[in-house]
Design a protein that fits this description.
GO molecular function (chains A, B): glutathione transferase activity; maleylacetoacetate isomerase activity; maleylpyruvate isomerase activity
CATH architecture of the largest domain in chain A: Up-down Bundle
Structural class of chain A: alpha+beta
Order of helices and strands of chain A: EHEHEEHHHHHHHH
Pfam family, one (chains A, B): GST_N_2
CATH class of the largest domain in chain A: Mainly Alpha
Largest interface: A-B, 49 and 49 residues
Largest sheet of chain A: 4 strands, mixed
Strand order of the largest sheet of chain A: 2-1-3-4
Shape of chain A: globular
Oligomer: homodimer
EC number (chains A, B): 5.2.1.4
GO cellular component, one term (chains A, B): cytoplasm
Number of strands of chain A: 4
Organism (chains A, B): Pseudoruegeria aquimaris
Radius of gyration of chain A: 17 Å
Helix content of chain A: 55-70%
CATH topology of the largest domain in chain A: Glutathione S-transferase Yfyf (Class Pi), Chain A, domain 2
Amino acid sequence: MTLHGYWRSTTTFRVRAALNLKGLAYAWEPVDLLAGAQHAAGFVAMNPAQGVPALVLEDGTVLTQSLAIIAWLDALHPEPRLLPEDPLARARVEALSHVVAMDIHPVNNLRVVDRLHDVFGATQAQARDWMIHWMERGFAAAEAMVAPEATFTLGEAPGMADLCLVAQLYNARRWEMDLAPYPNLRRVEAACHAVPEIAAAHPDTHQTPEAIA
Amino acid sequence: MTLHGYWRSTTTFRVRAALNLKGLAYAWEPVDLLAGAQHAAGFVAMNPAQGVPALVLEDGTVLTQSLAIIAWLDALHPEPRLLPEDPLARARVEALSHVVAMDIHPVNNLRVVDRLHDVFGATQAQARDWMIHWMERGFAAAEAMVAPEATFTLGEAPGMADLCLVAQLYNARRWEMDLAPYPNLRRVEAACHAVPEIAAAHPDTHQTPEAIA
């Protein structure tokens, strides 16, 4: 299968980490969001939502939306589990995942920040303030939802919520956000970075040649 | 169980419809988002993310995030199914749900639009344009993802994606958006409105006395 994504995209990071944890090999097809490759006709035919990631299977089936992809991977390759079998435990993992994937990430998405520039003439500093604001709100909620006694967000192994968090904290550090108020989240982040499969999914290991040059 | 929500909230609409389709009785506890009730200490203790809906079970367990709640309801009360058992079919329903629940709704959320007013001095017309813009993008994607031969988005019975869509189209109509370019979505909307359990969940049937007065 082939993962279409952007090296710095936090949603792509989530799926790379899930594929690695499942031990699944995949081809990597970069989609340059800054150059608008997600709006090209060929990509739109594959994913009408014009976003990354998209996972294309050997038979041509296309899966989109990072959390839907991760849940599908988890159903087909249940070890290690990224979503608990118990419905209530699963609902907790999903709710924490959604604090990142719904309350933070979409509001800070590249296209949204671009629109702040285009429509409201937002400066770079205002764009940064915008992103930090939503991360502060979301991280405060997540900090309260993490089990303080666990290694990861809600247990002793990384799951969907951990992948959402480690990716969003990567973004937070990119914008030099103060993470001191979130000791639980920083603990989870460190635990994730210590997992080789997650470390191997980090954006820095998938930079485009242009970004490295 | 008790559903804490706001009458006009599309995420609350989704969960009301799911509860009705499952035939589950619940108490209704209004949370006045316009008055800031979601930021009151008692509510924050229940849901640190300070959003609606929240579903409180008889034993005090609190479930948050509308799609996590719906998936939990579906696991405990599988008939009628809102998410297919087959992993690939489920991934398609989730991906379409997320086009609404991640790509549209969070960017148009009350708190985001409030911030456009506060930080960028957005006028009412600019706020409306902002909301319409994200709905146009998301609806174009959703229109292409709906199965044209099906009654609902992806089959012959309403599922999670239909609940997300009918709620978002309610919001679109509130802002007098032109829905002519989306015949598939309008067909799904009409099919949903013809389902008594979904019709009974409509925001107009849950208005606060102040809103009615």
